[in-house]
Amino acid sequence: MDQLTLDFEAERPRLRAIAVRMLGSTAEADDVVQEAWLRLARTPDVDNTAAWLTTVVSRLCLDQLRSRKRVEAYDVPAAALPGTPVDPEADAVLADQVGAALLIVLETLSPAERVAFVLHDLFAVPFDDVAGVLGRSPAAVRQLASRGRRAVAGGDVEVERKTHHEVVDAFLAAARGGDLGRLLSLLAPDAIMQSDAAGIAMGTEPVYAGADAVAARFDGVRGAAPVTIDGWAAAAWVHHREVKVAFLFTVADGLITGVDLVADPEILARMDVVLAGNPARDAE
Questions:
Q1: Are 168 and 251 in contact (CB under 8 A)?
Q2: 102-132 core/surface letters (b: 16 or more CB in 10 A; e: else)
Q3: How open is the CA angle 156-97-66, to the nearest 5 degrees?
Q4: Taking 90 as the threshold, does the pLDDT of residue 272 lie above it?
Q5: Number of C-beta neighbours around residue 245 at 10 A
Q6: 69 lies in the same domain as 178
Q7: What does the pLDDT look like over 193-238, one tens digit per residue?
């Protein structure tokens, strides 16, 4: 067995555990892990095999979650269900799986929230690394994981979702109207807007730091359409039925604390973007 295979086999149990928690299906998890192995086998010069595989498996899971058209029955072995006797062999199998109750809660999360929560809270992946998986800033990922944590704890995020929607709608209305004072009133003093590499290549500054800079960037902007992304209010530039740029807002205590500008087509393809009740990609 060569070193690459040995490295992969050493990571397989952890990767499978991540995939089971994200997908709630052992069969899908095994398929994802196998696909990760195939990609590794044809990818030269991977510096950090464990981190690379974690990213690939997480993104494959994210794609699977996005593609689901309906809530499917969980493929959880009978031994995972409460009250079912567990023999030693079954217990070993279940060591890398998760209880049915948690899976049901995870299903209520958006794909991005689920990935952020599983990676950070269940597998202690640093926020900076999760940000690389999702193509968002560490601050945005921190909020995604926090939403997942509250849902798992039995909290209701609908109030937060409503507040988020109201703040973002007011901000976009102020931007279209050129109301600089209103824009500033909706931004935290230390608000920051960050662009990904694709956005920077389009001519956007990498960072707009502080409320003044962020407000000036949006003042008078009319082309960013209100949308929902993964069920939360956001904005997007849409051209010829295709989302070119997404603006993701982080809101805390009624104020916008951060904006992520995402223009990477691969990352955009993993977002559930809806404009005026229709898929944004179908909008003119």
A1: yes
A2: ebebbeebbbbbbbbbbbbebeebebebbbb
A3: 55
A4: no
A5: 22
A6: no
A7: 999 999 999 999 999 999 999 999 999 988 888 999 988 999 999 8
Q: What is the pTM of this model?
A: 0.76
At 16-28, the pLDDT tens digits run 999 998 998 889 9
**pLDDT at position 59:** 94
- pLDDT, residue 240, reads 77
Confidence of residue 1 (pLDDT cuts 50, 70, 90): low
Residues 118, 66 share a domain: yes
Q: Which domain holds residue 210?
A: 158-282
Encoded amino acid at 109, one letter? L
DSSP code string of the chain: --HHHHHHHHHHHHHHHHHHHHHSBHHHHHHHHHHHHHHHHT----S-HHHHHHHHHHHHHHHHHHH--SPPPPB--GGGSTT----HHHHHHHTT---HHHHHHHTTS-HHHHHHHIIIIIT---HHHHHHHHTS-HHHHHHHHHHHHHHHTT---HHHHHHHHHHHHHHHHHHHHT-HHHHHHTEEEEEEEEE-HHHHHTT--SEEESHHHHHHHHTT----EEEEETTEEEEEEEETTEEEEEEEEEEETTEEEEEEEE--HHHHTTS-EEETTEEGGG--
Total structural domains within the chain: 2
pLDDT(78) > 50: no
Same domain, 103 and 162: no
Cβ atoms of 129 and 51 closer than 8 Å: yes
Domain shared by 16 and 33, yes or no: yes
CATH number at residue 266: 3.10.450.50
Domain stop point among 111, 135, 152:
152
Residue 223 identity: G
Average per-residue pLDDT for the chain: 84
